[in-house]
Amino acid sequence: MLLAVAGLEDEQVKAKTKQLASQDWSGLHPAERAAFAFARKLSVKPWEVTPEDFELLREHFGTLGALDVVWWTARCQYMTRVADAFQLPLESENVFQRMRAGRNTDATPSKSQ
Question: For the chain, how many structural domains are there in total?
C-alpha cells in the first residue's frame, strides 16, 4: 500500500515488489540498493548492522534521510511483528485506492464524527 500511496500504479507496484523479492537489485538506483540492503540486513541479521551501514545511507541520503530510512525500516518491521504476533489479517483491499484514483467517496465526515 505504501507504494500506491507514493503514486505507483498497480502494474508498477507489481513490478517493483517482484523485483524486490527477486533480490536482483542491479537495475535500481544505488541509493535504493543501499536502502534495501540496509532494510534486509536489519530484518534478517540486525546484530550485523554496523556504523558503516549507516554511513553508506548517509552518503546517499544525507543525515536526516538516512535517519528516515532507519526509522521507516524499524517501524515497518515493528508493525509487521505486532500484526504477526496477534495474527491480524491484512486488509482485503488497498484503502488508499480511492484517494489515488482521485475519487473522493466517503470524504465528507458524518455529523457523528
Answer: 1
